[in-house]
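At this stage, I needed to go through a protein sequence along with its fold in token form, as given directly below:
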Amino acid sequence: MGKIDDIAAAYGTQTIITPFTPVIEDYLRTTVRCGLGWDAAWFYAIVQTKKGKRYGLTRGYEKASSSNFMSCNMLDDPSEISPRLFKRMYVGFCFHEKVKDKDMVIAQSAPSKHHFKVVIEPQRFHWQEENGEVDLHLTALGPAMRLFSPGGKINEETYYTSELCAVTGTVMGEEVSGFGGMDQAWLPHGIAWTQCKTYLYHESYWLVFANRYEDETTDYGIVGCGPGGWNLSYYVQNGVPVTSHDNEFRNTYAEAGYPSELDIRLGANHFKWTADCRLNEIKGHVQWMSGRMINLGEKKVPIASYSQFEYRPFGQFQQ
């Protein structure tokens, strides 16, 4: 692991994290942030029906195309990968434009029987897949996170935003509710997300989570860690954001090799994450999971708990 730690440190592992309230310019492909150009966006959601059936969904897109997607019927047994919900989803050319005289951006596919569309307004989104078979409304839970990572000996910078949301809507005509969000990346000219330092050398874990309580309050957050001492957290409780780089992670692995439990200390807050589903994987490279992320210092018990965890063990893809 030493070689990867050295490379990660050379790229610069410092992260500057601040809460913010996005405006429409924060969703445009033409917007420059910290001298960096917009590269890509990702929508994701974990939702369930009133009968408890769960779905995991992801849609990513770039300036003029989309090739990143996931849909699954979530299993309750994390020992197996969940089966696909849709065997095919849209891949190809897409539009990504601001609506004239409105604080609105629309990203959508070219006409297709697998059409997707996302209508973006500040802190609220309308996301459709498969010509409306998936029809979700996402509303921000509170302040979003923005992250700036300066360069190190190798001068490459990253700017990243993450906005967590409550989700309502329908999947194949049945009402669902849950949790989701939108992430975006700004990068140096000529570098795409899977070529940047954060993806290649820094991120081993990326965990987003939200809990809802009986009194209708929520807490939510974002956690990341990886080689070279790269780690970050953003936690919002009772509407108050807290950031920390004083974080600790202890892992328990299942026999199949995936993390089954995480003991996480984010500054003064102590959490336990427990896996409940494996959403998808690219073998030998990355796994996506869901689970429950519980604040052990919180006396209230969540009535609903959601998380999406991206796990990329180093030493496989990078070498």
Q: What stands out?
A: The CA atoms of residues 63 and 251 lie 37 Å apart.
